[in-house]
Amino acid sequence: MMSAHFCPSRATDFNYFGDNYKMNAINSQSSTFETREFIVADTVVFNKQGTHLTDIQKIVLRGAWQGYTYEEIADREGYSEKYLKRDVGPRLWKILSEALGEKVSKKNFRTALERRLTLANPSHNQQLDMDSCQDWGEAVDVHTFYGRTQELATLQQWIVQDRCPLVALVGMGGIGKTTLSIKLAQQLQSDFKYIIWRSLRHAPPIRELLEEIIYFLSNQQEKDLPETTNGRISLLLKYFRKSPCLLILDGAESILNYDRKDTHYQEEDEEYGRLIKYIGETYHQSCLLLTSREKPKEVAIREGEELPTRSLRLIGLDELEGQYILKGKGIYGSEDDLKKIIQIYGGNPLLLNMVSTTIQNIFDSSASDFLKQEIIVFNDVKEFFDSQFNRLQPIEKELMYCLAIEREPVSFQKLKNDFGLKVQSLELAEALESLRRRSLVEKNQGFFTLQIVLMEYTTARLLKEICQEIRTQQISLLKSSKLLKLIVKNYVRTTQSNIFFRMVLDQLLLELGSKKNVESQLDTILSTLQHESFKLEDTTDDIISLIHRMQVNLSSYK
Question: Where is the AAA+ ATPase domain (predicted)?
Fold first, then answer.
């Protein structure tokens, strides 16, 4: 984790990690937990041992402040009471005792923290001149940083020279938005009096986030904050007008709801939308930089090349920058092999680091040996895409499947033909745009496609679902989907048919144990479909054709 930088004129190095607010029921009552005391606890621990309180320690501290027992905290947070009472709690009180220089327990820690806060009154401390005050929150260490020279220059131009009040940095997960935002902030330290970096990963309540930001900007002087969120936003803007501040909010997708077609804020975090809107529309001398997997609507409707609000979509690293990551992890191989790996994973830094670890552990760091296996979607990569795929709407999932089946870039009209009359052009266009905003679909000269690794992941996921339906005899995806005709067209009637069906049959053999069991399962499904064909949709004939084709392929198995 990155070493925290602080404002010299502050009474103490108060650096509260706002990334750990999402604490279920305990957090919903956090208004009784004084932010300043919590800042003191985290700060004195950091000053004593060089590390901040852990997430679980903060949960116990917050719960204890509310007066909850270990049992109640455990029930609310999903932990073992024994673990909290015998391990986390005692360690926490010991750490605080050492940091505060007095005996601290669950019973007296509030008094001890309040006493330390009193001693930390700014009037008792020497006020030092300052060039920049910085609060880095949970910003990671970016001492290893490759490329992004042009992106850094563009962002610096927008923020410093063009004085844009609102900038968004968007791109696929793992593409490097977080590290780029930190690197940028480091380079802009001389341009802003205040720099604040905060993570929205756990969707911290906005009132608490505003409280700690204002507390920092006011040098701990602003104590009686407005009760309303709007009042706190107005107060923040007052400080934004008073002094140049760079506020970075990382991971804005955490306050976006992907369960609907449009990008909008979850009910409890709609006020974040107002914060972004007001910062973008109001005159001041500061800047809000957002990072997100998807572009917030408050940015999308206001941005433009010559407008004050702008966004930069981050793409993968180029071949040279990608090779720095691979070679830095000890991966060796020909230049062509290294380039191929970078191409497969779209230059995504996180995916390149993931695959590098696999190549190290399984293939003795040999790029060539890894590529020979032709397996590019392993567990870490699968989990990475699962988290994004599971949040898609049904039509968005079908679009992903269609693009995976097509294999080659396709036009909007081709996709419209694949879906047929059941999907309106507007609905399809909205789904495509939603996938593009999340960097899951690429567009080039009017044609849409998937990155190689994402195409393989999506294909594997489709095959798994087909196998599950055959194994359970619950044919729902194929009945209701536009995919079936596409599968029949692109695989059954082409030279790729054997590849596709062998993949399905190999998986079925693995799950059902023998060729005989697979044959029996296919016969049962076929009999059921033929018997009920008059009741089913017009896809039934295609399903029967698909099953017949699988039986033909199965006959070649020994």
Answer: 163-321
